[in-house]
Amino acid sequence: xxxxxxxxxxxxxxxxxxxxxxxxxxxxxxxxxxxxxxxxxxxxxxxxxxxxxxxxxxxxxxxxxxxxxxxxxxxxxxxxxxxxxxxxxxxxxxxxxxxxxxxxxxxxxxxxxxxxxxxxxxxxxxxxxxxxxxxxxxxxxxxxxxxxxxxxxxxxxxxxxxxxxxxxxxxxxxxxxxxxxxxxxxxxxxxxxxxxxxxxxxxxxxxxxxxxxxxxxxxxxxxxxxxxxxxxxxxxxxxxxxxxxxxxxxxxxxxxxxxxxxxxxxxxxxxxxxxxxxxxxxxxxxxxxxxxxxxxxxxxxxxxxxxxxxxxxxxxxxxxxxxxxxxxxxxxxxxxxxxxxxxxxxxxxxxxxxxxxxxxxxxxxxxxxxxxxxxxxxxxxxxxxxxxxxxxxxxxxxxxxxxxxxxxxxxxxxxxxxxxxxxxxxxxxxxxxxxxxxxxxxxxxxxxxxxxxxxxxxxxxxxxxxxxxxxxxxxxxxxxxxxxxxxxxxxxxxxxxxxxxxxxxxxxxxxxxxxxxxxxxxxxxxxxxxxxxxxxxxxxxxxxxxxxxxxxxxxxxxxxxxxxxxxxxxxxxxxxxxxxxxxxxxxxxxxxxxxxxxxxxxxxxxxxxxxxxxxxxxxxxxxxxxxxxxxxxxxxxxxxxxxxxxxxxxxxxxxxxxxxxxxxxxxxxxxxxxxxxxxxxxxxxxxxxxxxxxxxxxxxxxxxxxxxxxxxxxxxxxxxxxxxxxxxxxxxxxxxxxxxxxxxxxxxxxxxxxxxxxxxxxxxxxxxxxxxxxxxxxxxxxxxxxxxxxxxxxxxxxxxxxxxxxxxxxxxxxxxxxxxxxxxxxxxxxxxxxxxxxxxxxxxxxxxxxxxxxxxxxxxxxxxxxxxxxxxxxxxxxxxxxxxxxxxxxxxxxxxxxxxxxxxxxxxxxxxxxxxxxxxxxxxxxxxxxxxxxxxxxxxxxxxxxxxxxxxxxxxxxxxxxxxxxxxxxxxxxxxxxxxxxxxxxxxxxxxxxxxxxxxxxxxxxxxxxxxxxxxxxxxx
Length: 1021
What we know:
By secondary structure, this protein is of the alpha+beta class. It is 69% helix and 9% strand. It contains 21 helices and 17 strands. The strands form four sheets. It has a six-stranded antiparallel sheet, with helices on one face. A six-stranded mixed sheet has the order 10-14-15-3-16-17. Strands 11-12-13 form a three-stranded antiparallel sheet. Helix 7 packs across helix 16 and helix 10 runs antiparallel to helix 13. It is flat.
């Protein structure tokens, strides 16, 4: 990933919008990010990391806290980064959650976090939108493109302040996670997981089979397979014995059931005969009643000779009685009709009297209808007059209201026009206030900056004086320490000569010059100097020399800052002109006045626009009302004319009305009354005529009916006398003495039929029973009645014995089948378990080896990463040896970790001074920085060398160089320069002045009270 451009707005210490064009730094630049403490150097790295992942480099600053306090309330906090990855350009924009002023009203509203990601064309234009708004989608997409998450990005591409040792001292697990992303070794991890999953599944299957075998044995209620075999062998003979016993019990039960069925058949025959005997006995008890019925039937047969005369007499009696009743009824009907006739004649005379008065009433109705029509016409005309008058009044009121409204609008328009003219004049006078405000605000900011520089200059002058004094003091101290160290060395050498002289022997050669004569041997001093005294003096000299170098660096840095401050102050004074000497309060007051002028101008612009629209609306309303008034005037005049016409017509109709009737309601009531009387009179006349005609007809019919009834009564009386004579003659010739005996012996048809059916049914049933009894006696001849209860008890005993034998057999058979099935299941389970165990011999061994559960506990992926880490350490050690003057090398720890902790990627440092390896955690601050830098550079080399790996085209280093001595610093800069020439972008954040001299291309971050700003220096234009 190579950054192209970075835009920060209201982010961190940057109050406005700051743009950094990394392409202007040159191709694969080595540049310095310089600036005072707190200016915002690290915020540039925060912005890059936030744009990509939504997090800062330190991960201890929440993105919602990165808004600049000096930023304008309307300015949105956002970061936009354009970057190149694998020859494709992308642009990402992020906005953190923040509070912003409401668009309307007071207060603030929460602006939700958002993110966009685009793919760009070669010209830098947007080609495709990959993420439209969702923050999580943008983070996931960037992570997929980069191949690194936020933590890994911070550890291999950005070494943030205080975080450069994390990758160096990370344990195997963390380093494995980082390296697996960098070298794309997830395939090995998937192999480990696949092998582990397969082995675990086989183990689970084996355990399942073991539990299944145990469950099979428990279900069969046996402890072991041996006990199962023994139990099965003992049960098979018992099963055969139970089978034979069951067959014998079954035959015995069938024989008992056959005997029971035959006994029940014989018993049914004996029961049937007893029932027939009882039924015959009960039937014979009905014999007397049947005999009486036969006697009555015989008596009825004797009455058949007198049936004809008796019937004739009965018919004659009925006819005579009926004729007498009809004659009596006819007499009553004639009397009733005569009374009704007289009443109808009276009603007819009264109806005729009323009917003769109807013509007079009809004439009166004609007069009333004519008056009614006149009243109705007047009512319609009055109604039309009232409606016309109301319409005319409504139109007249509307016209008056519109006239008043038109006059009001005209007055308002005149007043609004006068007010608008005055406001326009004031607006024109304030037209340039915004430009004046911007100019004065710029001057005010510059004046604040100048005041700050003046205050800073006095502090810098004082610090420079103190630094000069410290340099002089250190120089004097250094001279004393140097003289002291020289004297101590000379005294030590002199002491060594005296010590050697004390060991000389006469006529023995000198170990120094070889002479056997010793004319002037050195004499020992009173206080001999030891080698420790010499080292102490030399150490004091070196410490004083280092303090002098630090003081000189501070003196030079302060001098540069003072010079830079003077240059800025002079440039600001030239820009401010006369305002540079004016008090800051005067410039503040001028800015406030300009702000009020701008606010007033904006207020007037908006207000005048509103008023102009209102005035135009007034004019439009007046024109519309005037046109409406003119268009409605003819309608008002026409309504007034029609109202006067209808009023005159009403007066004419009132004059023509008859004086006898006061109102329309009275005429309608009288007319209704007369019409009702006429209808009643006509209806009464016609009804009376019809009733009289009907009564006359009915009276004639009643007279005819009375004559006919008299004739029929005489005829039936004569016929009755003849029938009585015939009956008396026939009764005397019969066996009956009188009418009572005849009537007693005579039966009705239904009674005779019932008695005949009773006699016939008795005779038929009696014959049937006697035949059945004869057949039953012939069938039972020679047989005796069986004991059915004893036979049933024998069957029940046989069934119980068979059921007991069957239960014994079924229990034994089920147990044998269960045990046989259990043997088969166990055999199948053992075969499956043997196959699983064979599979585990392969998969389990592979899983344990691949997942690091044997030997040095190194997994497959960690083994591959260990080989890659060796390549990284070769490159890193080559650089660390140079920076540490040949003392340190990075090596991979070979000893396995203790306990269950995974190992294989731990780092040690090889110390050539001691010849031993020790943990990287024991390195000092400066040594840790050198080792971390060397590791990062070596990792970049190796990752770039592997095809398909993640591209580490960029490296940012935040601080750490201050802990290096001059030699190590030069070596580090040299290595960064070499890396830069290899096509990498290297950005360094540091306060070390030597870096500023050695890196001509830099990004200067300048701080002020109103927010920091960014400037690129030494860029290639």
